[in-house]
Amino acid sequence: MSCISLQSTLVLTLVLLCGLSTSTWTDTIYRGTCRFSHKYSNDQLLNNATARKEYVQSVLHYEGNFHSHMNGINVFSGMTIDGCKLDPVTGNTTSPRRYTAASKESLHLSMLALALNGPTAEGYDPLDYFHYPINLTATERKLIHTGDNRVDNVLVTAYRKMDTLERFNAQQPGYGGYVPWSGVNDNGLDNDTQTDTSVPSLDNGEMVWGIYAVAHVLKQKYPDHAQLATRYRNYFDLLANNAITVFLNRTSFYFAMSAVVGANNVSVAKNTYRSDGIYSSSGPFEGELFAVFADIFGKWENPTQRDSTWDLSLYKLNWTIPAGVITVQRGWTYSSHEAWKYIMMPYQSVPIQARILANCEKARTWFSTLSGYPGLFAASYNSTLNYVTSVGIANLSRASIDYNDFYTPYGAFPVLMANHSVGLVWYNNMLKGPAMQGPYGSTESGTNDGKAVANIMSWDTKGPSVIAMLGGIGDIVKEALVGDRKYQMFFDRINSSYTAQMPYMVGDNVPYGMPPPPAPDATAHYTLCDDYVAPPPSTGIVLRPSINLVIISVLLLLLLSYTS
Q1: Domain map (residue ranges) of the chain
Q2: Taking the model in full, what pTM does it have?
Q3: What is the pLDDT of residue 32?
């Protein structure tokens, strides 16, 4: 081979090698990598507002990749799907779970409301979550053309979701507008005509406030979409009109956590309902969201009937830790899932509730600090893909606790609501664990020893953290309640009930616990969030950038030797 031909070959090889430095996952170059947690120290997240803003923007971007077709939503029907499994090597998605529930819809609706409402006081822009493009039809483009593709994504999703809900209610009016666990397809909810089928008040009690928030923001800020605002408000009113009929147990006067519908294709007025389950939707946990909804919006026959259904039974204790004594509200398992109400309603505007939340979250952090656990605990899938509910804090719970060997990032969401910067520190500490960040954001859960993760993602473990970082929808809901002249009813009910149960508390001056080191790197990170380089279709060659640099250096030396 001549020097000229060899020189040409070397130059061509250099060009080809340089071209191998991009991945088929085109989004990993946002701020360098989707594994960004290691770039932020505890001190930065605690004390540097600029660092927090950059961090939350990155969280919103990668969590927003989940908001894409057959990953977290069905874009055609506007409804959520539960999530997907993840490839254990790359972190890419496989096996979408094509079903939804009202709890998942509550999170999606909350994100829609926050995005439509605009940037937060900290300067976080919820629209960053909705960056993934959604194609609009020609008809939709005539209606939606804001000039910001992210806003268009939010609005078209809100339209399609309401289309689905209205169509669902017309086809299966027996549910009274409430959403059962249901399959999801391109046309909407995939739910057969059935008799004696159940629908939960627990999940729907979460969803109603998301609908309420979307209706309010659309009405206040989007006059061009006033009709959509009216449709959302009408659906909310439909749920309010049917709350007592569908869920109230008129014998014992409580709201059943789940009601049995006689026939889902028969109207509410002509239907039968059994609300005799042993569990009720009441305080002090997430079931209280439905109890509050029915309390202030339900169509009561008289005030006595309304008062007779309100029930609050909570248990408290004083927990002694090295930092002091904290009065806490005991949990059922003390799973963070039990604190769902704080992201949905303005509980922190009620002073007693703000104190209860702060104390409970101090206790949550101190338990993991003192135990040496790298994260926080909540019901989720574990590394064997079993959904585990008996996870939490045994010292502070009423039920038995079987697991403390794995953590989940959304365990930090109530801490984020109580103390934003401390919550970010705990959330980030969990993301620093191996394979806890992927191209679609956070992973479901990871073991404390770093040896395994749950290769899966779901709305339940992703949505609450993002919503809490943005402050929840409580301020939006409060503004709407004030407009409806209902806020004082909410405030008085919650303030009087909880003050009576917890008249004396200690621990206001106890600091939050800080996390120990993250879970060790005992398993591999997802390659799509590292320096993985996908093979080009024509060659099948896989090279890492570090190897590329070595080869390029050698080739440059050879090239120089032939040209000198």
Answers
A1: 1-22+544-564, 28-33+314-532, 65-313
A2: 0.89
A3: 52
